[in-house]
Design a protein that fits this description.
The chain is 45% helix and 16% strand. Helix 4 runs parallel beside helix 6. By secondary structure, it is α/β, with parallel strands linked by helices. The chain has one domain: Rossmann fold (3-Layer(aba) Sandwich). The strands form 2 sheets. The chain has a 7-stranded parallel β-sheet, sandwiched between helices. It has a two-stranded parallel sheet with strand order 5-8. Helix 2 links the parallel strand 2 and strand 3.
């Protein structure tokens, strides 16, 4: 029986994953900034669920959650950094305070969790770290520059972390979902207060008041949760797990475009080497 610590379980994929883990028979440390939103897990699964308050930007809460969870279940086998929210703005529209808060949650919050959990995983020479990203890191759509940037940052970090931890018997992986039927495009989506008319036909079309995709997303969060469990338990867990047909199509399109650009500019790129 593995013990999972999952951040951001009040709604969406985090909540679906917590449910799937507990239904699977594993232990789950289920966290949210407002612990009342996850307290039902402890009632429904009294032996295997521990509901705790956790704001990943608060170091004292990070330490407290890891300590309480480890005391209850004897250690953490799987850390899932899921806490986060969406942010839309043209790059020029983005508010500095908003952008720093976005990075504090998605990137530095995840790093803080990793640093607190890793010592016990290293001591055991086992464990898995799962960092939630987004297909937006690959697609980089207009209006999502900052969100794409923070997800690209966590992917880059995870790639290096995976190489550092592999000799220690610990796995690090990224989950890159497409659009799933959660409230991510609704309640969890924020945007800049500043609106610049010149971006009306690009970033402007994706502002909340103009976006009609909420409620039409093709992905099933429950199926995504089960897929994550399958990947974590696999002996050959992937570096990046892409979830959803839309995400697979977008990922392949991005790879094809990058390959085309690489080929088209290959001669110029190679001309920069020192002459033999």
């Amino acid at each position: 029986m593995a013990t999972w610590l999952i951040t951001g379980c009040s709604t969406g994929l985090g909540r679906a994953l917590a449910t799937a883990v507990l239904d699977h028979g594993d232990n789950a440390i289920v966290t949210a900034r407002d612990v009342q939103k996850v307290s039902g897990f402890a009632s429904q699964y009294p032996e295997t669920a521990l509901a705790l308050p956790l704001d990943v930007t608060e170091a004292t809460q990070v330490w407290a959650a890891v300590s309480a969870g480890s005391d209850r279940f004897g250690g953490i086998d799987v850390l899932v950094n899921n806490a986060g929210y969406g942010y839309r703005a043209a790059v020029e529209e983005g508010d500095d305070v908003d952008v720093r808060a976005l990075f504090d949650t998605h990137f530095f919050g995840a790093v803080g969790m990793i640093k607190v959990v890793l010592p016990q995983m290293r001591a055991r020479r086992s464990g898995t770290i799962v960092n939630l990203s987004s297909i937006g890191a690959r697609m980089t759509p207009a209006g999502s520059g900052y969100y794409s940037a923070v997800k690209s940052a966590i992917e880059g970090l995870t790639g290096s972390l995976r190489k550092e931890l592999a000799p220690l018997g610990i796995i690090a992986m990224v989950v890159e979902p497409g659009a799933f039927r959660t409230d991510f495009f609704g309640r969890s989506l924020t945007q800049s207060a500043t609106v610049i008319d010149d971006y009306a036909e690009t970033a402007g079309k994706r502002r909340k008041e103009n976006d009609t995709t909420d409620g039409t997303q093709p992905g099933d969060p429950a199926k995504a949760a089960r897929a994550i469990i399958t990947a974590v338990e696999a002996p050959d867990a992937p570096e990046i797990l892409v979830l959803g047909k839309d995400a697979i199509a977008a990922y392949r399109s991005s790879l094809n475009q990058q390959t085309a650009d690489l080929t088209a500019w290959q001669n110029l790129s190679q001309s920069t080497d020192l002459d033999d």
